[in-house]
Amino acid sequence: MKNREYIKIAIIACAASIVISACNNPSTTTTTTTATIPSPAVTPAATSDMAGMKHSGGKKININSAILSELDKFEAKLGVPALSNKIQAERPYKTPEELVSKKVIDQKQFDQIKDMVTTEEIVLTGVEKDVDYMVKLGLMKGHLFVAKELLDLNKVKDAEPHIGHPVEEIYVDVADQLAERKVKEFKTTLITLEDLVKAGGKDNAKVTTNFKSSMQSIDGAIAALPETQRKSPAFVLQVINGLLDTANSEYGAAITDGKIKAAIEYQDSRGFIVYANMLYKEIATAMAKDRPEEHKIITDNLKQLTTAWPAAMPPATPVKTPLEVGKLVTAIEQSTQKVIATVASK
What we know:
Number of strands: 4
Number of helices: 13
Shape: globular
Helix content: 55-70%
């Protein structure tokens, strides 16, 4: 992702567990390593060839306000390199059909995505608004997680855009909610960290200190949500699903002609997967106890999903194709829907 605006959409579908290597977060996380799992069988939910190509939750994307990670869903589906940037460059649009009249894509391509496109703003309320809020903060954390991994590898230039994403693309969109929830402003903290890294990250002590401060600020913003909600499997699964959905689209946008051509998108998706894993660990015990069947199905599929991101720097050849990643994400969504539906019916 580059400099972006963030889309205001509802992310209400379900999500899943995830077991992957957590990155080295000096503020909250102990680095762990999960061995590659030898291809467990994909559950029936993942067998459809088209499963991975759908837009999770069926929610439309506002092409006037979506950040590039959301627009990447179109890029991944159509296989058009840099399509996200082209869509953004031609804003504003009066109607979705202007994607064709402005020659961003042709009619045949538009017909493939027309059910995903809107120019209408969607106002969120209730739980949907809370999920959206936490997903945005989760994306911030994901960016910082992978940035820290890259900094630890002395890949300062590679880390720089990921340090910038939270403040440049997401904070502006979550600012109103932060104020509404009476969360102390932390944009300045994020900017300070970004400036240190842009300067070459030479003062490692300052970078480390500011990284911790940034993470603590985001955690503080998350804590503005009620504790009961943050510990609710049904709520957390919806947040995880938002992260997985975004990781799925970013991964698809990273790959062209069977090669990882956009390392930034690959790294973005890795960061989101890392945080999704952390969130699931917080509800794993409850899931294993109360929903053992779904827990096992989700875990088996996510062990496979994990292998798509073996390290912060992308492999020469993708471990999994975008279709394979998409099918696994879809399998997870289908399985966890049972959990969400049960809670909703009470």
